[in-house]
Amino acid sequence: MYRILSASIAALVILSACGGAGGGAGSGTAASSPTPTASPAPTASPSPALVFGVADTSLGKVLVASNGATLYIFKKDTDKTSNCYDACATTWPPYVVTSAATGMGGKIATSARKDGTLQLTYNNQPLYFYNKDAKPGDTTGQGVGSIWFVVQNP
Length: 154
Description:
single chain; mainly beta; 2 helices; 10 strands; 22% strand
């Protein structure tokens, strides 16, 4: 079982919408920002607060969305560019948000997908969910095809 480290949630990130007044990175206030969907899906969520956490798993500490879903990177992606579409995006739904975001000292950002939606990135790597993870904290996508990996020790 895992637990979200409450101190990490507060310390990790509260993303702010780009172009808005106040609430920017490092300001200590939260601005209206995107959130993940309740269950991983390749659609954007209209909710206003995006919070990340760190979960203790069998793989150690990993980056998770606020719903506890483990986040993955795809080794075939290039700097801020997703290469996971169609059937790939069905199995590995991209973490799509409704507005540009930044956080975690620049480690969290967004990049545009081919369809114009925005995908959250960590260290310039687009983030994904794995549709075979059944519950929060699952890490069953780790190492799939030797190209999918959890974000460890964020």
